[in-house]
UniProtKB/TrEMBL annotation:
Organism: Tsukamurella soli
UniProt-listed InterPro entries: Bact_Lucif_Oxidored (IPR050766), Luciferase-like_dom (IPR011251), Luciferase-like_sf (IPR036661)
Protein name: LLM class flavin-dependent oxidoreductase
A Pfam family of this chain: Bac_luciferase
UniProt feature coiled coil, ranges: none
Residues of the Luciferase-like domain: 9-255
PANTHER family linked to this entry: BLL6902 PROTEIN, LUCIFERASE-LIKE MONOOXYGENASE
Length: 339
């Protein structure tokens, strides 16, 4: 069995060919797709976070709205760039959204990917300290978030407060008692996967990672997952870790699918350079369902993960993407034992 969710990058574009022509369109359609996905039996609705772009950026209003409109589907991010975040304010927003959703948040966080502007986090008021990189700063913000989410008091109460205080140091409110166990780290390398395991965060691995061995992407990603699980065991955490991988998977079942994605057949891994680091990008899967079953069966990283996040072409609208997810669940997943 496999947990299957969708991952939307939340693109919008005023082009007549786009079904999401404004920020309002993509926000409302994200809610509608999550509702439709829950009705189909999809396990999760996840959203990418990008700043300074025609994409989703501030996730918590959206996550809270979806939480209020659904009842079972997991709701998450993939990922929030922690270089931009005030971890205490984030803990308040996340706690509130999680309580609205009844404990269904699955927050993916990370250092983030290359952004639209140079050092955009500086405009948000965050600057690395001397000797600290922006990646270090993102990890520091994450450490603070994890500590705050533990629920331990840390703030000295006012001796003359407006309202009576409980005894002892105060914590951030509202507090969701189990959210700390549902934080996922988006790891781009084996080393950051091991770091996430040592901190008790679940692993979220996307469609790219540092090219550390020159092997096919799915093989390197599977090794990353095994390194994460080994580090988790060494850390002695008292719960089982979760692992997700992301893939672009398009079942081609009619002429519409063929027109949009027929050229994606037979795609292969690609290698590029991101922030001066050689990275490998995983292939897309687009084919008839029986062909997909055979291709996906050979993906070692999917086999290692308990959760699969399928990227959706959100600009094609809710109806198309709901049908794509339904075809995946009914025509591909059973053949792989995922359903």
């Amino acid at each position: 069995m496999k947990n299957i969710g969708f991952l939307s990058f939340g693109h919008w574009n005023p082009s007549p060919q786009s079904q999401t022509r404004s920020a309002a369109d993509v926000l409302h359609q994200s809610i509608d797709l999550a509702v439709a996905a829950e009705e189909l039996g999809v396990d999760g609705a996840y959203f990418r976070v990008h700043h300074y772009a025609n994409q989703l950026s501030s996730p918590f209003p959206l996550l809270a709205a979806i939480g209020a409109k659904t009842s079972t589907i997991k709701i998450g991010t993939g990922v929030i760039d922690m270089r931009y975040e005030n971890p205490l304010y984030m803990a308040e927003d996340a706690g509130a959204a999680d309580l609205i959703a009844g404990g269904r948040l699955q927050l993916g966080v990370s250092r983030g990917s290359p952004e639209q502007v140079i050092e955009g986090y500086k405009y948000f008021g965050y600057v690395p300290t001397d000797g600290q990189s922006d990646a270090d700063m993102g990890r520091t913000h994450t450490e603070v978030l994890l500590q705050v989410l533990s629920g331990e008091g840390f703030a000295q109460p006012n001796p003359r407060p407006m309202f009576p205080n409980p005894p002892g140091l105060l914590r951030i409110e509202p507090h969701s008692p189990t959210l700390r166990d549902r934080i996922w780290w988006g790891a781009g390398s084996d080393a950051t996967a091991v770091w996430a395991a040592s901190r008790g965060m679940n692993l979220m691995s996307s469609t790219l990672k540092d090219d550390e061995t020159g092997e096919p992407f799915h093989v390197q990603q599977a090794k990353q997952i095994r390194a994460f699980r080994a580090a988790w065991k060494d850390a002695g955490h008292d719960r089982a870790p979760r692992v997700s991988v992301s893939r672009s998977i398009i079942p081609i079942v009619d002429d519409v699918d063929r027109a949009y994605f027929g050229r994606e057949r037979g795609s292969t891994d690609q290698v590029g350079v991101i922030d001066s680091t050689r990275a490998v990008f995983g292939r897309s899967y687009a084919a008839e369902p029986d062909v997909l079953v055979e291709e996906l069966r050979g993906d070692e990283a999917i086999a290692e993960a308990d959760t699969l996040l399928v990227t959706v072409p959100n600009q094609l609208g809710v109806e198309y993407n709901a049908r794509l997810l339904e075809n995946l669940l009914t025509q591909v997943a059973p053949g792989l034992g995922w359903r």
